[in-house]
Amino acid sequence: RDEVNQQDVKLSEEEIDIIRRIQGGGIPDADFNPYEDTVEWFTSQTMQMPLNAAPPSKMSFLPSKWEHKRVMKIVRAIRQGRITRTAPKDNEPKYFDLWANAGQGDDTGRARRQRLTAPRMALPTHAESYHPPAEYLPTDAEREEWLATDPDDRKRNFLPQDFASLRAVPGYDRFMQERFQRCLDLYLAPRVLKKTSHLDAEELTPKLPDPRDLRPFPAAEALVYTGHTGCVRTISVDPTGLWLLSGSNDGTVRLWEIVTGRCAQIWNFKEIVHKVEWCPSLDMCVFAVAVASRVVVIIPADLCDSQKRLVSEELVRAGFANTGDNEDEDDDALPVSWDTPTSAEQASGVQVSIAMRATVMAVTWHRRGDYMATLTKEEGGGSVLVHQLSKHKSQRPFRKLKGSVQGVKFHPTKPWFLITTQRNVRIYNLVQQELVKTLQPGVKWISSVDIHPQGDNIIVGSYDKKLSWFDLDLSVKPYRSIRYHKQAIRQVQFSRKFPLFATASDDGSIQIYHGKVYDDLNQNPLIVPLKILRGHEIRSNLGVLDCLFHPIQPWLLSSGADGTIRLWT
């Protein structure tokens, strides 16, 4: 209500909106933009302008004294003959015949390149005739379609026409344009004289031997070992070739007789078994099991004779007298304890238990049997440890390691130690304590590594389906890369007695190769694909998890996610 004029005033929607904006502390005008772009009234670039318009002084017209001295110096040099006029240039002709000596040798005696003749134009067809057959003449619909099509998309640049006689044919209106395009094609289009060589396809294929001439190798399934309820992660064969160990997700380790498939003994650890590994020494009968965060060393008393059993027990139990000597490193830096097993474990053959801080993923033995290396999930250099069984001592060979470690392995003939990271394979010399070389397979994620028994060649498998063969005497780059699997490669393995190697993959197949390494250094290794073995079922996108060659026979043992172990002969 307007109290001054004593009358009611009806406000419009715009006036109510203005009142609300004022009460809210805003700007009354709804169309006003408080954040519009600023206008650059003043430029940031300084303009070069004279401060005054006074004419230059007369001093600027006086000759310079230093320029006079410079000119006199040049004059004296000319009078003394130190500066002479340059010799007149030869009046060479501005234009010359480029093809005067075509087909002849030049001044240097070299023959000129052969002149390439221009390609001929296509011969005219029936459509170009002045009186073509009736089937070549376009209909009205075809004529409209041709006119509506873009000139660059037309199959022909003309429409066939019919004339009663040759005298009635008019002049071609596109003659100059086509001649001009022809000249451009000859001038701008490059021409190459192709030398055709007639080669047979069989001459280009490498001469590989017949697989039947490379026998023996595993070719058929002979036996299936069943009993595990979970996927079998790892298998290992003893040096005599009579017994097989297997570790599974069901928490058990089973001992099998290879020839008959009989399960001789079962160890139940109630946790996932990541790795089982027999000691490679023929003088001992002992194996290691990686369960959770500890490594258990077991001597199967029923399998070995009294002499092997005595040697093995002396080696394992000799370290209990040196338990107080393992104080070389700080407990925080090296949290490893060598524990005496319980009475129940001793009854099953357990001799010693090595407890660690993180989960143990891999165990590998030295060829002499006294040392073994372990890999844990711990980050940094503490993930790789080397243990001496006879003294119950553990040491950390690396303070720091670059990258995530995927595997460890001892060299079979040299004092070398292999560290497998996600992208590279590093080879260290344990005696000289230095890096020997770094192999670069060029893959995204390495899964497994194995070394040839002679020690000069290494194969590397990866999760991106690629197999790389390295010759250590040749280069740090792969000598040969093979990609035949359809899924990730889980394991690669050399045969210790025969020139064979195998790859196991998640596609449920095992591929057998012939890999011959010659004593002659000038001859490259011979790699021949032999056989694809299929039999394992795929469970949860996992196929064959581990494979291993028999130490004596040309047999192959494989384990998969289907809970079975298969013998291929």
In short:
The chain is built from seven helices and 29 strands.
Blueprint (SSEs and pairs):
Blueprint: H1 13-23, H2 65-80, H3 140-148, H4 175-188, H5 201-204, E1 221-225, E2 232-237, E3 243-248, E4 252-257, E5 263-268, E6 273-278, E7 287-291, E8 294-298, H6 306-317, E9 337-339, H7 343-347, E10 350-355, E11 360-365, E12 371-376, E13 384-388, E14 393-395, E15 405-410, E16 416-421, E17 425-429, E18 434-439, E19 446-451, E20 457-462, E21 467-471, E22 480-482, E23 489-494, E24 500-505, E25 509-516, E26 526-534, E27 544-549, E28 556-560, E29 565-568
Antiparallel strand pairs: 1-29, 2-3, 3-4, 4-5, 6-7, 7-8, 8-10, 9-10, 11-12, 12-13, 13-14, 15-16, 16-17, 17-18, 19-20, 20-21, 21-22, 23-24, 24-25, 25-26, 27-28, 28-29
Supply database-style keywords.
29 strands; five-stranded antiparallel sheet; 7 helices; extended; four-stranded antiparallel sheet; alpha+beta; 569 residues
**Number of helical elements:** 7
What percentage of the residues does DSSP assign to strands (E)?
25-35%
Structural class: alpha+beta
Shape summary? extended
By DSSP, the count of extended strands is: 29
Largest sheet: 5 strands, antiparallel
Unreliable stretches covering 5 or more consecutive residues: 326-332
Q: Numbering strands along the chain, what is their spatial order in the largest sheet?
A: 6-7-8-10-9
Instruction: Using the CA coordinates, give the radius of gyration.
Output: 44 Å
Work out the helicity level.
10-25%
What is the first-to-last residue Cα distance? 108 Å
Q: Mean pLDDT score, rounded? A: 85
